[in-house]
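Comment thread on ticket #2218

A.B. wrote:
> Attaching the input chain for the structure job we discussed in standup.
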Amino acid sequence: MAVRKKKRNQAKTGCLIWLGAFLILLILFLVKFEDIRTAVEKTGFIDALNHAVSKQDSEPQQKPQETNPEEPAPAPTLPSAAPPAEEPQIQSPILPKETTTTTKVPKEVELPSAPLSESEPIASSPGASISKLSKEEQKTRTAVLYFVYIGDDGSISSQKVKRTLAISDSPLQDTLESLLKGPTESELRANLLSLIPADTKLRSVNIKGGTAILDFNEAFAYNRYGKEGYLAQLKQIVYTLTEFQNINDVQFLIEGKSRAFLSEGIALDKPWSRTSF
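C.D. wrote:
> Ran it. Output below, let me know if you need it in another format.
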């Protein structure tokens, strides 16, 4: 009992202390009310509090959605799955049937190649214009020369060949100069020779009427093959020059002078023609 009484006394004492403290605070509040009010107004706390209260009153209260407990909630609809895309059918390419073709290779046909002689000009196709010819072909001509052919039995005969020479103002002299040079290598292989002495030089050429007057150096008067050689050298020159249409015969001079005889039985005092042999 003493303990309970002691606890009650302590509770009363505590209440009195709290009540005394409250009264003191109330007195202080009343005394300092004007100062507290002024300080609160300066801070704007009351205006902010009034604004917050008025805003809360103006907002409508949202009513909670009424749900019927008996009705089950609708099941959420799931998006339907898209049908699977059809796989494209890969068609195997249609390959053409293998066909073996045999081509006949034409047999090579060897055409006989006809050698072109120096005298035969290259035949042009019909209608070919002269302008297609090269400048060299337009400035050349074909000359006929005579050389000596020695047979297997030792017989001597005249053989003509054709040469391509450049066109000039002295065709007769050019032809004689070509003759004095002798046969070519191919002509030598064909057993063609020249019996005109190797050191023979042409000093001048003149034409009087149908006669060609030729002047040679002294070497022309000496032929190591004798009479047959002299006749052969004269025949080469006469036959070569009479291929020109305006030449009928040839008069021979040696060192600018006419001689009665070139050798025994061979006179040079008259012109020589083809009929002289």
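A.B. wrote:
> Thanks. Noting for the ticket: The two ends are 200 Å apart (CA to CA).
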